[in-house]
Amino acid sequence: MTFKFKQFSVNQDRCAMKIGTDGVLLGAWTPLINNPYNVLDIGAGTGILSLMLAQRSNAEQIDAIEIDEDAYEQCVENFEASPWGDKLFCFHAGLDEFVDEPEDEYDLIISNPPFYTDDYKSDNTSRDLARFEDALPFEELIEAAALLLSDNGIFSVIIPYKEEERFVAMCEELDLFPLKITRVKGTPTSEIKRSLLAFCRMEQNPQIDELVIEISRHNYTPEYIELTKEFYLKM
């Protein structure tokens, strides 16, 4: 159950949420224009986002929080096995605990939040916890970002496209404004499935674009290859 990238590997046998396109997209896409000194990864899972940002950025400190014990232990192992073990830290905590005693403000806050808002649940409780929005409501995530983000910080997420309007409105209520929006489609003819969103504290005209992943099965678009080629072995 090891997922190999160009500069690091990720074990995921103990994590309910496996590595998928969403996480890799978010880790590769997230803007680093403010050259972040420190990063917070909320709901780290395997630690994939923290590891990607360790590779991409000059950040000195990357903190991750993970509530599920198995995922937390696996995340720590993945951090320690990586080339950047000295600057990656994972905390076994819920977001509410972490926010109660904030130590730092962060220049980048990143999250691939659990977002199944439907009432359907499966028989696998840890997978459900990882997948359902009641494990981390958007409200709680946005409030934490508004509290912990530095003045020139960036808050970056990937969510279902159908939730984009609501999420942006909730952020704006707390003075977090869109900086960049990329809407993701599987193929040129498919519906938009995901929104990559980056927010900052200054109101501005956001850069808005669209990303198509595949032209046909395993025939990736030049844009997707360009975005992920530093990570995927076969790109």
Automatic annotation (TrEMBL):
Q: Does the keyword Ligase apply?
A: no
Tell me, what's a Pfam family for it? MTS
According to the UniProt entry, its GO molecular function terms are:
methyltransferase activity
Q: What is its EC number?
A: 2.1.1.223
Query: Where does the protein principally reside?
Result: cytoplasm
UniProt KW keywords: Cytoplasm, Methyltransferase, S-adenosyl-L-methionine, Transferase, tRNA processing
UniProt cross-references to CDD domains, sorted A to Z: AdoMet_MTases
Subcellular localization: Cytoplasm
- InterPro entries under this entry? DNA_methylase_N6_adenine_CS (IPR002052), rRNA_Ade_Mease_Trfase_CS (IPR020596), SAM-dependent_MTases_sf (IPR029063), Small_mtfrase_dom (IPR007848), tRNA_Adenine-N(6)_MTase (IPR050210), tRNA_adenine-N6_MeTrfase (IPR022882)
* Methyltransferase small domain span: 38-128
Q: Could you mention a single GO BP entry for this protein? A: methylation
Q: Cytoplasm among the record's keywords?
A: yes
Taxonomy, superkingdom:
Bacteria
This enzyme catalyses: adenosine(37) in tRNA1(Val) + S-adenosyl-L-methionine = N(6)-methyladenosine(37) in tRNA1(Val) + S-adenosyl-L-homocysteine + H(+)
Into which family does the record put it?
Belongs to the methyltransferase superfamily. tRNA (adenine-N(6)-)-methyltransferase family.
Q: What does the UniProt record say this protein does?
A: Specifically methylates the adenine in position 37 of tRNA(1)(Val) (anticodon cmo5UAC).
What name does UniProt use for this protein? tRNA1(Val) (adenine(37)-N6)-methyltransferase
Q: Which organism is it from?
A: Flavobacterium helocola
